[in-house]
Amino acid sequence: MKIKRTANVQAKTPCILGILKRADIEQILKNYPKVAAEFIKEANRRMKEMEKMFDDKSMTSKMTPN
Question: Is the pTM above the cut of 0.70?
Answer without folding.
Answer: no
